[in-house]
Design goal:
By secondary structure, the chain is mainly β. It has three helices and 20 strands.
């Protein structure tokens, strides 16, 4: 149960064109309706055209009406001539939180093995809220008639951005649809050393839970991920990776569990996440 609980842009080109025309030093990521992507500095906006100075292919001219997405990006995201775009799932490992937080308007829906469903969204750059549901009655018909519903607020504190971040939050859950409906609130605190692409995390949760995690980005789309939960007589460890595309990400790995009975259980892990919002 602890495992369940704790693991418990569209942007207008016209608006950005107005901002871009005021500062030619900014770096922009532009995606067109035909799925091409360009990164560079906007040097001119003339009527219905936009002139972009790119690093790889020189100066190009794009029609404003052909632009699907346009956003300012951090030059630090350019690695080996490619842009490593951020994604909202960098605020968590498989399920465990990091000290990094969702930004305002940024969110994602997460599904793990069909059973566990959760969505999170950033209310501000430091405060986010999430909620989830495990409809047990759909998968264990005849034996279980209950549904577990939870809510997961989180506050992030960037002590030093991309170096050291703290996060505190909790899981408030209720079991409904059974004769013994009940609820509870559990809290946690995590400290993350590193940026959103490469970090390690140590956390504590109630009652007596120790959380560890680590993430290493291997390229524009790939991540290696580890997380572990240690509480009393139960130890859970997840090892695997994540592949990220523009509209979906895929988590995959292996879950290992060792109980006080010295019993080792190994199971595959599979989940998807769909970003939404900003």
């Amino acid at each position: 149960m602890y495992f369940v609980l704790f693991m418990c842009l569209w942007i207008s080109s016209t608006t950005y064109a107005q901002d871009a025309s005021q500062d030619t030093l900014k770096l922009w990521q532009i995606q067109t309706l035909d799925d091409n992507e360009y990164i560079g500095k906007i040097i001119e906006i003339n009527g219905e055209q936009l002139v972009l100075q790119t690093q790889n292919i020189g100066t190009i001219t794009l029609l404003i009406q052909s632009i699907r997405l346009m956003r300012e990006i951090n030059p630090k995201g350019i690695k080996h001539g490619q842009y490593w775009s951020e994604h909202p799932q960098s605020t968590r490992y498989f399920l465990a939180p990091t000290g990094h937080g969702l930004r305002k308007g940024e969110g994602y829906y997460q599904n793990t093995w069909i059973f566990f469903n959760q969505a999170n969204i950033g209310l501000t750059d430091q405060i986010s809220i999430g909620g989830g549901i495990f409809p047990a009655f759909l998968f264990l018909a005849g034996t279980v008639s209950s549904t577990v519903v939870w809510i997961t607020p989180k506050v992030s504190f960037p002590i030093k951005e991309d170096v050291f971040n703290l996060g505190i939050g909790g899981v408030g859950f209720v079991t409904i649809g059974s004769e013994n409906s009940s609820g509870s609130v559990l809290g946690y605190g995590v400290a993350t050393l590193g940026n959103r692409d490469k970090n390690i995390t140590l956390g504590l949760g109630s009652p007596g839970l120790v959380i560890v995690g680590g993430m290493l980005r291997t390229g524009t789309k790939g991540y290696l991920i580890m997380e572990g939960y240690f509480v009393q007589d139960l130890n859970l460890v997840l090892l695997g990776g994540r592949t990220v595309w523009s509209k979906i990400s895929l988590d995959y790995g292996m879950l290992g569990s060792v109980s006080s009975f010295r019993t080792l259980v190994v199971a595959p892990w599979l989940g998807v996440a769909i970003p939404f919002g900003k």
